[in-house]
Amino acid sequence: MALTPDFLFALANPVALLGWALLVLAPRWGITRRLVLSGALPLLLAVAYTLLISGHYLGQHATEGGFNSLADVALLFRNPWALLAGWVHYLCFDLSIGIWESLDARRRGVPHLLLVPCLLLTFLFGPMGLLLYAVVRRFYAAPATAAATPLSASL
């Protein structure tokens, strides 16, 4: 079986989808904690991204495209391996944001039913979900931490 961009794309998507499904459907399950909330799945995607982007810049297409202009970015993403790296980048970072939203919501006491639309938007449209969660979290104060407690109050 040849490692093609299409084959790896077909592998990366279910990895990310598994993480999102666990965050939405089983947020307090032990498997979710060990596989997703620990950061294991995003780190797996980060490894894939590192290999893909390194392969691009060490390969024969290293001089094609770049990040200095929109035209350079478009040229970069004409290469299917670089395009796959970009896609895995999205999968990794969006899932990382979803994990942060889940952990922050748990710490603040945000009801899961309010978090789910944020997670779904983050999964589908990244920054839109983050924006919605930023609005939601404003209504739930972060609990005081021991470090934030004045010394005189603890005596």
From TrEMBL:
Name its species: Hymenobacter canadensis
- The yes or no answer to whether the keyword Transmembrane is present is yes
Ranges annotated as spanning the membrane:
6-26, 35-59, 79-100, 112-136
Checking Pfam families in the record gives: ABA4-like (PF14108)
Q: Does the keyword Membrane apply?
A: yes
This chain belongs to the protein called ABA4-like family protein
Q: Name the domain of life.
A: Bacteria
Question: Which keywords does this chain's UniProt record carry?
Answer: Membrane, Transmembrane, Transmembrane helix
Read off the InterPro entries from this record. Answer: ABA4-like (IPR025461)
